[in-house]
Each structure stands twice: as structure tokens, then as C-alpha cells.
Amino acid sequence: MTNVTLTVNGTHRSLEVEPRTLLVHALRDELGLTGTNVGCDSSSCGACTVLVDGRSAKACTMFTVQADGAEITTIEGVAEADGTLHPMQQAFHEKHALQCGYCTPGMVMAAISLVEEYPGLDEHGVRHGLEGNLCRCTGYQNIVDAVLQAAGTGGD
Amino acid sequence: MTVTESAPAAHVGSRRLRKEDPALLTGEAKFIDDLDLPGAVWVGVVRSTEAHARIVNIDGSAALAIDGVNEVLTGEDLAPLWGEGALPCAWPVTSDMKTPTHLPVARGTAKYVGDAVAVVLADSRYAAADGAAAVVVDYEPLDAVVEIADAVADGAPLVHPDLETNECYTWGLWGDNAAAVDAAFASADHVVTEQYLQQRLIPAPMEPRGCAAVPSPAGGELTLYSATQIPHILKVMTSVVLGIGENKLRVVAPSVGGGFGCKLNVYAEEILCCALAQQRGAPVRWTEGRAEAAVSTIQGRGQVQHIELAADAEGRLQAVRVKLLADMGAYLQLVTPGVPLLGGFLYHGCYHIPNYIFECKAVFTNRVPTDAYRGAGRPEATYAIERAMDSLAAAVGVAPEEIRSRNFIKAEDFPYESPPGLVFDSGDYHAVLDKAVSLANVAGRRAQAAQRRAAGSTKRIGVGFSSYVEMCGLAPSRVLASLAYGAGGWEAATVRISPTCKVQVVTGSTPHGQGHETCWSMIVADKLGVDPDDVEVLHSDTAVSPTGLDTYGSRSLSVGGTAVFMAADKVIDKARAIAAHQLEANEDDLEFSGGVFRVRGTPEAEVPLAGVAFAAFTAHDLPEGMEPNLEAHVTYDPPNFTFPNGTHIAVVEVDTETGNVELIDYVAVDDCGVQINPLIVEGQVHGGILQGAAQALYEDAVYNSDGQLVTANLADYLVPSAVEAPRYRLESHVSPSPTNPMGVKGVGEAGTIASAPAVMNAVVDALRDLGVNNVEMPASPQTVWKAISSAQGGAS
After folding, report:
1. Can you tell me the mean pLDDT for B170-188?
2. Nearest to residue B260, comparing CAs of B220, B209, B188?
3. Model pTM score
């Protein structure tokens, strides 16, 4: 077992994990943050996307030990303390960008990171920027529109 | 049914945002793998790596040496847990259908890659996975049936030697039609003969399956949590298979991350976890991995379709003849045999065709069982007729929209009795087609296509049509009996008004992304004159919603929603009697609007529903003989199916040098009857379109000649991303269904039913002048390039 120190959603956490423990399983099983979902085993679907030091990362493709010392933000950490949704969450709600909601946490995290990293994205940029996040319900149009709205570069 | 005055439709028809969203957006929603179950036993399943093999030996010693692995159990070890019980098939379509015994864990022989042959019990998910990987199974390979055609070949190996055949059943709709059909073909001016392959598809909801069986701490009772579409049906079936009294079993579907039909089943792992939890008195859980899901969860489609059309000189259809070979896979899951039948009623499409004959032969292969996948039979039927209609249009020399228009059932012919005897409820197929043609600017696109052809461009434009009619809300129950379906077609609902006038709706429908809570709230809010946020919708737990038939086949709104609507009416009836008592008026003199009962002509004499609700609760002064409280229960068995319809038009750009196909425009005009929430309707259509387009262009469960699935994960199996998805442009047409009081039809599968043929017709349209008349799905660059090359006389 290895000791790992993380700052998760602003809170300092110290935990003992097997060296092979995936970051997503540490978050879910050790820290009880089950908002981050697991959808595949080949880094294809992006359901497990979180922010590691502000950049999106697939938490199923990272060992917890690789995140030692990092700041992690999960879906549980993006709304305000009073429950006000993050603008990206709010845009997903308003654009009906989720149905079953399983891909949603990862999609929202990827979108937050995308918009931050590449301001002024157009539809083409959003679609390519989210290529690593799969959704089976929505056909993506409302997701793309939500991201454009939150980015302030499109939508209503 | 008592008819009450309707409150103004303040909410129904509006684009109300979903009440389901906040929990899903913040990570608060609990999916099956999120459940915290201290002390749970983790199950790892050892799956066959052979398509067909005798199990010679199972050695668990290496697994047992792993820290945290506690037991390795074979099919022989587990057999006493289910005794005579086996996984159920609820749709014996013919009396002589062959049904192989389907054990949760195989004994003696493995029948497909993925067949469970042993299980590992462990302390953690990692130990369970390690343990399952470490179990060594010695197989003696047997000859396997891999392709559908192989199953009926002379001298084919037998998937189930004890059945003495690979044929599961033959089912047909022919009546006395054969001679008339033959005569129509003999005298036809045009005969179109086509064969299409419906490749196998992996449903791939973003949430894999999972389940957990938890004994009650007080003993004697078991709760099964499962990522299922059908907690009610699962409860009945689990009870039957394991002999657990229904009164001792509770089934809960937590938040479910999509289903698309593949969670409409009773799976080995659900039975296994229940049996082990009962035996051990401890929670037992299993979560599917994605690559595991490709072989442990049902697959969809898997048919060879032979369709012939007979038409007169103008292309007016005289007869259609269909023969199917349908792949059941190695075993029959819950409704496996029935899927082709659901299509069997629809191979004439939305056309008036005097003579119709349909026959399906179902066969076993050494592959994963097939079963319902979004559309279940109807996408296959629509694909065949819509592709064949384009061939007919080419043969007659008219445009695709013209051949459709000439043959459509006319608006004035509804209700229309279809050749196989269904009564189509309502529609205006011509109006829908016209709207789609206009929206897609078909003339402009064709001009663009012609221009590029003339310029010798390698980027060709194709325009593809698909007009469909489908059937939803399968009912009434006695009609399902005539199809030998093992359950009814009804749905249950309760509407309950609390002392403070908050409303509780209990529904037997089981949502997994469709937005039931929002829509049911809107329906009830309009009925009762309350705020939708004051309506709570309970579902998916047999302890709070004991009666129901769940969610599949686009049935939720037309059956379950109607039950809710009727239960609200029934509550209003009771409230009216109480209000009349309070107002000392005659019930017939009361009107109910905006949540207030008023005496007609005496507007000052009124009582709000809240006043009635409180009076019903205190029961201090109710009409003589009336029971206290304000609630009503309805079980609704519809008199007929509903028949959504529409026309979709796809525009593609095909690169003739690389074979690459890009969807550059997609137009859909759907008639799903009255829309409760257009925002949700559009979402269903968007997702449905992409799922069908994915069959057309990307997805394929590819097996090699040894019966190995070579596209078992999401890196190899191409679920499309936002990059491949087109922008959808939607309009709708509303012809209310006369079958139910809201005039609704259903929309969950329409997009998927329509889109695959629209896309493939567009691909062929782009290439027809190069001599290409057919391209098989999925139209990958390689497949398209080969089709062009072959048509040009080159190497294929």
C-alpha cells in the first residue's frame, strides 16, 4: 500500500491505496465521490473525466499514485456551496443536454476544461473538443449547444 | 371513464425543463455501482473463451491463491442453487418452438464466447477481477455455428445436440394469401428482389449492467438492486426461477444509465447474486466491465432479410413477400424469439399493399443471445421496405418521394386495417413527406449533386429518404396473448393527494433517461391545477410501486402516461363528490378548473382542491359511506397499439476515392401524436437518429470464423462521438391518436427506426449512377470503396 495525498474539491485528503488503484476507484470507493462514473475499460468514453490541476483527465486511465499532490476537481465540486449550479451545469439543464445522465458528469467536466482552455470555440471546435466523451442518449446536439451557451459563443 | 372538464393546458405542450436533471448534473444520483454495501461479496464471472467447447476441467487454485479471493464455484457447484430453474424466455412464439435449457452458469459445455462457466467470490472488485482472470479452464473445442447461414447449411454442427436441429421456430403471417401473392408477382410489371444483412449490434448504454442482492438484516427477505428497465417483470421472473416468494422479494432499479432494450431482460448475474445472497445471508454484487458487456449482455439485430416487391407499371405496389433468417444466438433470453415478429407486421411499411406474406425462420448460433434493441424488429422491417422502395423507384424511373407518395396509405383511410390485420390509428403520411421535402430543400440538394457529378467531383452528394410507421404500446393484453407473449400490455398508476395538497404519483413505468418524472408531473399538474413542482413521481421500486409492466417498446407515455391521466380523473371524481357535499350542491352542477370546484352560475360558491384534500384527510364530514383520503388507482389496458410515423431525409457526402461517408444534413418530420413536452420529444428523436445512423455507418459486432467477437470494447466498436453526429433539423406533424384520451403515440424508438434506411438510401443515391445498387451496413470507408470498385468492374 502506498500513501497518497490529494486535494479533492478543495479538501486535503490522505489515503492508502494499492499502487495499481485507478484514480477513479480511489475517488469512488475510498472517498465516496460516486458522481464520477466508469463507462468503459479502454479510455474511450470519458464518463470518468475529472480535472487534475485544472486540466481534464480520464480518471480510469490514471493511477492514484500519479495524482499524488495534485488538485482534483470532480463533478461534486463544481456547483457553488449554496447549490447554485456551475454555468456549464446550468447550460446542460437549460438545453436538455442529458437524458440518462450517466455520461453527464464526465461530459460537464470535459466541457468546463475545454471552454477554459480554448476560449471562443465554435461548434466545430466543441464537437472535436468533446470527441473523447461518448453519450448514447442525446445525439450530442443539445450538449454542443449547451457548451456553446456556457462558453458565450453560441446558443440562445 | 368519467369525463371531467379539463383544466387549461398550462404545462402540457410546454418545453418545461426536467426535474430529473439536478441530481444527475451534480453527481448526487445513485447508479447501481454507486451503492455502498459494506461487507458485500464481489462476484467475478469466468467466461468462455471458446465459441463452442466441452468444459474438461476448471482449476481455481491460482485464483484462490490471490489475496481476497475466497471461492471459485463451477456450474456444477452452483447447480443446487437453482435446481430445476433456468433463465426464462417469456415469448414462446410457436407451440413447437425449441427452447434450450439456459442455466445461469453453464455445465458441461460452453455455447458462446462469453458464456459463464464459473464464478469467483471475492472481497473487492479488484480481487474479483483478478480471480476471474486466474481461473484456468481446459476446453475441448467443438465445431461452432458462427454465421446465420451456417446454421441451416447441410451437415451444420448443432448448437444444442439435444434439440436435434438449429432451427428454433418458423413463424409466418400468410393466412390464405400465398396464391394471391403469387398471382400478383406473376402479373407484375416491376419486381424488385433484394437481400439485406442486419448486422449484429452491441447496445452499449453508457452505464454497463450491474446488480446487487441484499438480504434483509431481519432475515427472510431479499432486495435485488439492478440496472434494469424492468424491476416489476424481473421480480416475478426471479421469484419463479428461484422459488422465492414474491412477498419475500423486492426489486429496485436505482438511477439507470440508459437501456435501449438491453436492460429489458432477466440475466444470469441477477439470478446468481440473488441465489448466493440468499444462501450466504450477505450482500452479493457484480458490476459489468465494458469489454465483458459485449459478451454478457444481449446483442441486437442479426437477421438476413429477403424482400420482394411486385408493382404495376406506375410503381403501385401489388404485393410484398418477405423471408427472414433471424439469429437467436446460443440461447433464448427474455423476448429473443419475439423480436422478428414485431417487425413481421410492418414490412409493408406505410404503404397500401393488397397482398402480404411474411415468414421468419429463427436459428441458433454459437454467439451471444440476441434480444430487443431500440426498435426491436421495427427498424429491421423499415430498413428492408424503405431500401426496396428506392430500388423500385429506380426501376420505375421516378424519384424516391414520388414512389412513396404513390403508395402511401391516405389520410382519409384512417383508421386503416393493415394487411396483417392491425388497425393503424391516425396519420397524414403525404403531409409529413411534403414537409420533410421542403425542409430538406431536396431540389437544391439534387442540383448540388448534379453539379458535382458534372464537374467530376470525387465528393458526391446523396439524398436518402425513409418513411416509416411503427407500433408502440403493445396492447391490449388479449392481443398479446394471441401472439403468445408471456405478459399483458397494461400499466398501473396511482394518484394520491396529501392533506396539504401535494400530489404523489406512483407509476409502473420505469424511466432510465426518458423524463417520466417531468412529464407525469406536467400531466397531473394540468389535471389538478397544481404546480408541477408539487407533484412527486415514485417509480422503479417494487416496494413503493408494486404493480407495473415497466418501460420498453415506446410504451411509457401511451400506456403508463395514460394510466396516470386516468387516475387523476378518478381522483377528481372523488374530490368532486366531497366538494359537492361541502358546497351542498349537486355534483353535476360543479365545474373544476384551475384547482377549484365551483358551482356553475354561482361563482362565489367554491372550494379549492386543497380544502377537499384536507377534508378527505380529517374525514370529519364526508358524504355518507365515503372512504377517507383522496387517492385513486388505475390499471389501463389500451384498446389498440399506437402508430407513430414520419419521414426522414439524410444528406451525405461520399468521397469516392476513400469511401468515406459524412452526414452533412439530417431532416426529420415525425408524427408522435400530441406532445407532452416537445423538448423531451426532440431529445428522444436526436438520440434515436444517431443510434440508427450508427448502425448504417459505424457499428458492427464483428465475429471471426472461430466465433470470437473482435469488436468487444469501445475502442473497436464505433459508438459515434459528437464529431460524427450531424446537426438534426426537426419538424413535427400532430395527428392525435384516437386510441387514448391524450392523443399520444410514443417517440422513444422512432428516430432509430427511421434513420438507418435514410442514411443508406443516401449513400446509394450518391453512387447509383456509378452502378452501385446496394451497400451493406455499416457503410465503412472500406465497404463503400469496395462497392464502388466492384460496380466499376474493379477488384472487390
Report:
1. 91
2. B209
3. 0.97
